[in-house]
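Q: I have two molecules that I believe assemble together. Could you output structure tokens for the complex as a whole instead of separate predictions?
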Amino acid sequence: MNAIIFSALSGVAMMFTGIFTTNKSAIRNVAVIALLGLIIVNLLHSYGIFVVRVNTHSMLQFETFGLFFNTLVFAATLLFVLLSGKDVTNAGTYGAEYFALIFFVLCGVSILTCYNSLLMLFIGIEILSIPLYILTGADKRNLKSNEASLKYFLMGSFSTGILLMGITLVYGITGTFSIEAMRPAVSVGAPNYGILEPVGLLFIFIALLFKVSAAPFHFWTPDVYDGAPTVFTSFMATIVKAAGFVSFIRLFDARAIEMGISWKIILPVIIIATLLIGNITAVFQQSVKRMMAYSSIAQAGFMLFAVYVNNDMSKEGILLYTAAYSIATIGIFAILTRMKDITFDGFNGLAKKHPVLAATNAVFLLSLAGIPLTAGFFAKYYMLAAVVKENGAGALWLVIVAVLFAAVSVYYYFRVIQAMYFKEGEPEITEVSGGFKTALVMLAVLIVLIGTFPSALLNWFYF
Amino acid sequence: MPIQYYIILSLALFCIGIVGVLTRRNAIIIFMCIELMLNAVNLLLVAFSKMHYAAAAVANKAATEGTEGQLFVFFIMVVAAAEVSVGLAIIVMMYRNIHSVDVSFLNRLKN
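A: Yes, here they are, computed for all two components at once.
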């Protein structure tokens, strides 16, 4: 509760900051302080200290997993603001308002990690999405940004419509919005529409698959990620996507049984399709930004494993994946914002001119590819181990397919590394400050640390 | 009136909305079709809410079942209004740049 209230208030505070000052570094500092405050109040909540007590009438339910995820997301946002705060204020005409919208997105995230009622799911998704439509179109004069924003908006509200229809059908049968299976006896004499509930749940799942951009509902992702200003793509691809997965897991935990056994067949198909489309299409991209968009679809395929199996290990896996994937992607996009030419060729010879940028970028890419000693390796390992733990040798084929696709992903990640280290060229890059380089090095160190001692992060989860 | 009629009417409206979104090329009309989908949901929610109340009221006159459904409708209305304001702003922004609201121009990003 602390996090929800405080993030909304921080958003409002950021808007007022925009009125009183136009000094960009002051605005950034206010945002960093508000984020630190947000992390602190959320940690206080984890230890049982409430700043505000609100009776939520069991519409929200706070658990360690959700609270820890909140902390992780806020910390990732803090890293994002520290690293790319300058680009946020320079993305369009306004500075403080973009930070305000980011705080509203965080408010949506903290609702999605603890909802206990389909009403809160709907509100959380909307609070998360509406600011994103605006952020996508932040660069008002840029046609690509306009197009991405309109596309995102139309697709987003279309999927909201489907989500609402699903919620309504479930409500019609069960008479409640609570996601815990409370079924009051369906009225006597009312006709039996038992089929409506699985259909309703299916609609909800389709809408959520839209949000996390899993195949076959992924088609908006590359266009939107490509068109949006690069800083906001970085935010969308990491923090927002992870939040979508957590909401998915909560719902699947509670209601998957009612869909019958069929989801056990549907979900592996979706996972494999997502991995296939994401990885194979990424191979053929010329622009690194677009490659990252497809790679984010591919990573979503891996994260879907946490929805498919639900045990302690998969929960640890999704936390680790969120941390590893967010840090690496935020770093890569921060470097990408500085590049004048965002195709693979633009990276030619980066290692000679900017060795620090090239080295950290290589660490981030290795982590995304899942090479040992980086965080990405353990993230993928935990996911696959969770599948084997749950289903035994029967699910081994799924693990093998996933590993094969991870091997495919190595190809396009290494193309960037190859361009940076083994090709000659004159990369054009805007001025980078010493602070930016230090922040990048810190991110890279963080990735290696998590990759060496993943248990340090996870032990913290159990306090 | 039996609940089936409401379900069929809402699903019909919902399908009209979906078909409209998928086939029309004008951003404003697509937008209207999305609103139609949301309103079909509202109608169905109110019908279900009434159904649950009627079922509960047989046993207990002071039953409060079904109020949730009507509350949800208000939330949908509020959120839809917020979405409309953002959506129309985006469409206006696009119109200023290209003087058209036709979405078939939306293929610049493909290549």
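A: One point stands out. Chain B has one domain: 3-100.
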